[in-house]
């Protein structure tokens, strides 16, 4: 995730007053200093409560619910088949988060982590069923994530994860290559309807990119723009840089079924030979 600010403020106004977090700046914690796990978790919990009090949260929550298990869970077969012991169909779902960034030193990353936890709670995906990875995570941050109950991946998948069950991909302000890799790995009529992406608007990516470059280097994004459904999520002005340009992106099976079979045959793996400044940290060989 990108975090351009050296030092900035998030100004909060509610009914003519400022909250306790009216001025926020990146932490002074350096990589050499041990991270206080309990203190960091408490700070994230405070941000969760703060987001819940924001006007925009209601609209995000509505979109989450419309995109979550209750909206599109496959029907159970033979009574409780496919359900866990607790009977929750939502257990069929999972969540994957890439590119969150260093939340111990980035205010925006901390807010985005708080929003991820609210997302899981809203659409009733168990925290343990959310896998998370960013190569920049420190050992202290990994301890925080594990204490929160999240599953921390140990391998850089570069976004190339095949969805074998309905999956929410939480990709806030990630590079185009990560989205492109995810689309390539799931480029079929069977897999694309399983994925729900919460991340940068594909339509806005298209508008900001030269059509020739997008088609050449990020061909799966280029094609997906015409195939997906996007629902823009609102962002208050004081949250720009944190939640701006975010959409819920889905793929409807009936749209994909209308395309010729050649659309899906032998999709080539992206190589990015013409991208000297690739917006992704590659896997070490």
Automatic annotation (TrEMBL):
<comment type="similarity">
    <text>Belongs to the SRR1 family.</text>
</comment>
<dbReference type="GO" id="GO:0005737">
    <property type="term" value="C:cytoplasm"/>
</dbReference>
<feature type="compositionally biased region" description="Polar residues">
    <location>
        <begin position="21"/>
        <end position="32"/>
    </location>
</feature>
<feature type="region of interest" description="Disordered">
    <location>
        <begin position="1"/>
        <end position="35"/>
    </location>
</feature>
<dbReference type="Pfam" id="PF07985">
    <property type="entry name" value="SRR1"/>
</dbReference>
<protein>
    <recommendedName>
        <fullName>SRR1-like domain-containing protein</fullName>
    </recommendedName>
</protein>
<feature type="domain" description="SRR1-like">
    <location>
        <begin position="87"/>
        <end position="249"/>
    </location>
</feature>
<dbReference type="InterPro" id="IPR012942">
    <property type="entry name" value="SRR1-like"/>
</dbReference>
<dbReference type="GO" id="GO:0005634">
    <property type="term" value="C:nucleus"/>
</dbReference>
<dbReference type="InterPro" id="IPR040044">
    <property type="entry name" value="SRR1L"/>
</dbReference>
């Amino acid at each position: 995730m990108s975090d351009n600010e050296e030092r900035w403020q998030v100004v909060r106004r509610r009914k003519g007053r400022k909250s306790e977090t009216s001025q926020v700046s990146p932490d002074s914690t350096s990589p050499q200093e041990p991270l206080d796990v309990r203190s960091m978790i408490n700070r994230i919990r405070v941000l969760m409560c703060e987001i819940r009090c924001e006007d925009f949260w209601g609209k995000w929550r509505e979109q989450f619910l419309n995109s979550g298990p209750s909206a599109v869970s496959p029907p159970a077969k033979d009574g409780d088949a496919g359900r866990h012991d607790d009977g929750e169909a939502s257990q069929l779902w999972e969540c994957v988060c890439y590119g969150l960034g260093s939340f111990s030193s980035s205010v925006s990353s901390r807010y985005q982590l708080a929003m991820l936890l609210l997302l899981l709670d809203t659409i009733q995906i168990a925290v343990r069923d959310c896998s998370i990875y960013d190569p920049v995570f420190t050992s202290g941050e990994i301890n925080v994530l594990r204490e929160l109950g999240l599953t921390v991946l140990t391998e850089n998948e570069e976004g190339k994860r095949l969805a074998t069950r309905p999956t929410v991909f939480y990709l806030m302000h990630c590079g185009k290559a990560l989205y492109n890799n995810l689309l390539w790995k799931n480029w079929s009529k069977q897999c694309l309807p399983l994925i729900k992406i919460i991340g940068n608007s594909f339509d806005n990516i298209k508008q900001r990119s030269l059509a020739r470059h997008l088609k050449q280097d990020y061909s799966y994004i280029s094609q997906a723009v015409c195939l997906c459904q996007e629902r823009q999520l609102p962002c208050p002005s004081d949250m720009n840089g944190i939640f701006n340009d975010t959409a819920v992106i889905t793929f409807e099976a009936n749209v994909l079924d209308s395309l010729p079979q050649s659309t899906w045959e032998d999709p080539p793996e992206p190589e990015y030979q013409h991208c000297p400044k690739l917006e992704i940290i590659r896997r070490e060989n």
